[in-house]
Write a structure and sequence with these properties.
Number of helices: 3
Distance between the termini: 6 Å
CATH topology: Cathepsin D, subunit A, domain 1
CATH superfamily: Acid Proteases
Oligomer: single chain
Shape: globular
Strand order of the largest sheet: 2-3-8-4-7-6
Radius of gyration: 15 Å
Length: 145
């Protein structure tokens, strides 16, 4: 299984990912004769405390995506009161060595991540499809799919 090991930064297990429109959205755009937005580089934090992958609304705007629904989530700041957020379908490419692990259609929530200095939280919905090792003593993490 391809993997990579990276130093844990002061902000945690960070990595750069490519974010784009979902495979289905790309097909709709192509069939209509419209251009498909190029995937964009985004800073991501691997977060085992997040049940789902989350993206910052500014990144959504840059990709020109429209919501596919509304979802509820409980965050550290909302306590026991659920917070409603718009849902979007995107594609994510995670670099694993010289390869990429592709997730062609990921349903994600849009939440303000700008104060954290990131555009994406990689949650357990994606982590559950691979292996994540957090080695705090060595200040390294390994991600494999």
């Amino acid at each position: 299984m391809p993997h990579f090991t990276i130093n844990i930064s002061q902000a945690g297990p960070l990595l750069d990912v490519l974010i784009g429109v979902s495979q289905a959205k790309a097909k709709v755009l192509i069939d209509a004769g419209n251009p498909v937005p190029k995937p964009m580089l985004a800073r991501a934090l691997v977060d085992t405390g997040a049940s789902c992958t989350v993206i910052d609304p500014e990144t959504i705007k840059k990709l020109g995506l429209t919501p596919t629904g509304i979802g509820s989530t409980i965050t550290a700041t909302t306590g026991s009161v659920p917070h409603d957020a718009e849902l979007y379908d995107i594609s994510i490419l995670i670099p694993i060595g010289s390869e990429f692990k592709g997730f062609p259609s990921v349903p994600i929530m849009a939440l303000d991540l700008a104060p954290c200095g990131i555009q994406v939280l990689i949650g357990r919905d994606l982590l559950g499809q691979g292996l994540f090792i957090y080695d705090g003593l060595s200040k390294l993490y390994t991600l494999s799919f």
